[in-house]
Write a structure and sequence with these properties.
heterodimer; A: Nucleotidyltransferase, domain 5; six-stranded mixed sheet; 8 helices; about 40% helix; about 15% strand; B: about 600 residues; alpha+beta; Jelly Rolls; CBS-domain; Beta Polymerase, domain 2; globular
């Protein structure tokens, strides 16, 4: 139980909730369109410290318009947005502060790692807390009490609904990051997690 | 809707300009409270944030009883922020809650904006307007009452020649947020003026008060109503209103005073009664009714309201006794003023009648006459406070005797029970000492001995069975003039059963709920039976008090029969369950005490 004693109190850790909007699911073929981050500090979401940015696709890359619309982005908006090379340091600075908080992070982290590699940056390997994993953790715990619990709904809007959280607009990077942060707080309370090690 | 968008549509945030709103958004935090978690604790640290409920419900509680329930869009913690005091209620998540909050410093900046600040005060005016629109205004929240009543301290003054630094020191020493400046011209200087006209302007403590005070001063006559004060504050955008009497300022009312007066304060009445001279108590019953009404409207449980009312009644009786002693001289022997019946059980919610008696340690006929004189004065004082006389004559004027006499009386009731006399006297077993130094342990011992007297208990059981729930042959509720007698049919049987169980168990609890719990702990009553009867008692108390208050609000005398029309369909079916439960317990008592075999 050595690690339990050394793992910090969950409240003392800063969690940067992160969400990326991308043009598709494959980091090799698709690009990051926008990023949103908001921190949980002292167990509280600090909305005032939120950060978001659109990402201008590299020259020669075109994104279909209806793909953009699904992410609440107007085609013209991207023209004046910073390029990925300028956006990555913003993400990097935050990711190094504590833990990264994601909802179904495989996708976002895949894109991020690919972007880091493409820009010759070193991935900082932050601790990652994934709300989908926490949902599963809670499910397993219930499994011990009831023989056949219904599996949790893991899509972000449905999971939030199941925890009595208000509906937000989907597929908007910053709003999804906030939605993830709030879901995290609800899950943390339900799991009665006290230390970072209980969460990742 | 994301946080900023949500708040932008919530009053008073919808009143903020773009810059102020940006300050809110930049300081905004999102918190999650799991069900049962406390956001603030009564008497605990001051609030550090203003909260707005985004999702879920939050309960304001006092001693575990809900005072108010807040829902989406409702703000909390502002009384603590505004008054800079400990929270006066517990704030607890009734279900999982998502809330937005802003730090106190930002809240204070926002309060500089009149539109924002007035939101909290307007809440008050709204209520008044609504009540004025009704034909018969609700009894609570009386902004029509005199503003003078809210003034608790003499005004603090300072000379015109003083400096801002001197004024600040006076304010700190006296713990006030304003000083009056004696002119001419007369003026007023507030902590707000010191901040915005002195500090913010880069001036020093040597600044003459005359340069930064407000003059002329907006004042009101002492006879003005709280509503007048409120309107002046809103119209003139001031937070301090001096009140005058015969051209002299007698005190300063602040907006914080008004906020505090939102709920009729039992504490205020308590203070007035405790220090008061009895000649001034003509409105006691009315004030008490208003307090009961506002406590009930605020969601306080009827059983708890009974405790508040008893505290107030006790204080009144004690004040009357002290005054009488002052007039008659020191008592010739120790005595105890006792109350019984619903007052003894602390279950009187509205002033129904006085049940009191006097026990003394006097030994001579002169002593007896002295105590009768004492009782005479106190009972007269209670009547002057609109405390109705007991129709059965159970008052200290008639029931005044030495302790050994009382022991004999109780032994008589227990040893040779006369059914009719016992019916009248059983409420004496609810006695409770209100005032006086005489130790009544010997009387308690006599009552405790009742647990061994099976004949007495059987008779007591029969009186408890004498109150029958109004149920027909097919378990339906029997209506009486379109209504139900909640007291005779429900409350009285539970009270009598609880008394029987307590005496049987030899426990000294007096309140019905306490008695049921103690009897269950002593094994006289099953835990399930105690829980059912307690629940039934709470339910009936609430229903009855609600019916009584409705009658009073409509300007009618409360009736024994509560109209069935006034109950929801759920309440009707609950009422039937309650009556059935009472009948069931009564049946088991009938068997256990074999009351059928009594002569």
């Amino acid at each position: 139980m050595f690690f339990l004693r050394t793992s910090p109190d969950w409240e003392t850790v800063t969690y940067w909730a992160l969400d990326l909007e991308t043009s598709g699911l494959d980091p090799k073929r698709h690009v990051i369109l926008s990023a949103g981050m908001v921190p949980v500090r002292g167990g509280v979401v600090r909305w005032g410290e939120r950060w978001e940015s659109l990402v201008r696709p590299a020259d020669g890359v075109t994104v279909p318009e209806d793909g953009l619309r699904a992410h609440h982005i107007l085609p013209g908006e991207l023209e004046h947005a910073p390029m990925l090379g300028a956006v990555l340091p913003e993400i990097d600075r935050r990711a190094r502060e504590g833990a990264l908080l994601v909802h179904f992070g495989q996708l976002d982290l895949g894109f991020l790692r690919a972007a880091y590699a493409a820009h010759g940056l070193t991935w900082p390997k932050p601790r990652v807390v994934d709300t989908v994993e926490l949902l599963q953790k809670l499910h397993h715990r219930r499994h011990q009490l009831t023989p056949h619990p219904t599996p949790p709904r893991t899509a972000l809007p449905e999971a939030r609904e199941d925890f009595g959280l208000p509906p937000y607009a989907n597929h908007h990077a910053l709003t999804d990051a906030l939605a993830t942060a709030e879901l995290f707080l609800a899950l943390r309370a339900r799991l009665q997690a006290r230390r970072l090690a209980d969460l990742c | 809707m994301e946080p900023a968008e949500f708040l932008r549509h919530q009053p008073p945030f919808d009143q903020l300009g773009p810059a102020a709103f940006r300050a809110v958004e930049e300081a905004l935090e999102v918190v999650y409270l799991a069900r049962g978690e406390f956001a603030l604790r009564r008497g605990g640290p001051r609030a550090e944030h203003l909260y707005v409920v985004r999702k879920g419900t939050v309960r304001l509680e006092r001693d575990g009883a809900a005072v108010q329930v807040l829902e989406e869009g409702d703000a909390f913690a502002f009384p603590s922020l505004i008054g800079r005091t400990s929270p006066h209620v517990d704030v607890v998540a009734a279900e999982d809650v998502l809330a937005y909050r802003i730090p106190a410093a930002v809240f204070e900046q926002l309060m500089e904006a009149p539109a924002f600040r007035e939101f909290f005060l307007l809440d008050l005016t709204d209520r008044l307007r609504r009540s004025a629109a009704l034909q018969a205004p609700p009894l609570g929240l009386d902004l029509g009452r005199s503003a003078r009543a809210l003034v608790t301290r003499d005004p603090v003054g300072i000379a015109l020649g003083a400096t801002a630094g001197e004024a600040a020191r006076v304010m700190r020493e006296r713990g006030v947020s304003s000083v009056l400046v004696a002119g001419p011209p007369d003026g007023i200087l507030t902590d707000r003026d010191l901040r915005s006209r002195v500090l913010a302007e880069g001036r020093g403590p040597e600044t003459p008060v005359a340069d930064v005070m407000s003059s002329p001063v907006a004042t009101l006559e002492g006879g003005a109503s709280l509503f007048d004060v409120l309107m002046l504050m809103l119209d003139r955008r001031v937070h301090h209103v001096p009140l005058t009497e015969h051209g002299r300022i007698v005190g300063v009312l602040t907006d914080t005073d008004l906020l505090r007066a939102q709920v009729q304060s039992p504490i205020a009445l308590l203070k007035r009664v405790a220090s008061g001279d009895p000649g001034d108590l003509g409105d006691y019953a009315e004030s008490l009714t208003q307090i009961v009404d506002s406590l009930f409207s605020a969601g306080l449980e009827a059983a708890r309201i009974g405790r508040v009312v008893s505290r107030l009644n006790d204080t009144l009786a004690a004040a009357l006794l002290r005054n009488a002693e002052r007039e008659l001289g020191a008592p010739p022997a120790p005595y105890a003023w006792i109350v019984f019946g619903s007052e003894g059980r602390m279950e009187q919610t509205l002033l129904t009648d006085q049940d009191n008696a006097l026990v003394h340690a006097g030994t001579t006929p002169e002593h007896q006459r002295w105590f009768e004189g004492l009782a005479e004065r106190v009972v007269r004082g209670l009547i002057a406070a609109r405390f109705p006389e007991c129709p059965g004559g159970f008052m200290a004027t008639k029931w005044c005797q030495p302790l050994p006499g009382w022991q004999a009386t109780f032994r008589g009731w227990i040893g040779t029970p006369d059914p009719q006399a016992l019916l009248d006297a059983s409420s004496f077993f609810d006695w409770r000492v209100v005032h006086g130094a005489l130790d009544l342990a010997p009387l308690e011992d006599v009552a405790r001995g009742a647990s061994r007297e099976s004949t007495f208990l059987a008779h007591l059981a029969r009186t408890a069975l004498g109150f029958t729930p109004p149920l027909g042959a097919f378990r339906q509720i029997k209506l009486d003039h379109g209504g139900v007698e909640l007291k005779r049919g429900g409350l009285a049987p539970i009270v009598a059963l609880a008394r029987l169980f307590a005496l049987e168990a030899g426990v000294s609890e007096r309140g019905t709920l306490d008695r049921l719990a103690a009897a269950s702990a002593a094994g006289v009553l099953s835990a399930e039976g105690a829980a059912t009867l307690s629940e039934a008692f709470r339910f009936l108390m609430r229903l009855r008090l609600r019916d009584q208050l409705q009658a009073l609000r409509a300007g009618r005398e409360p009736q024994a029969v509560a109209s069935f029309e006034g109950f929801s369909s759920l309440e009707r079916s609950q009422l039937k369950d309650v009556f059935l439960a009472i009948r069931e317990v009564q049946e088991s008592v009938r068997l256990r005490h074999a009351t059928d075999r009594l002569g």
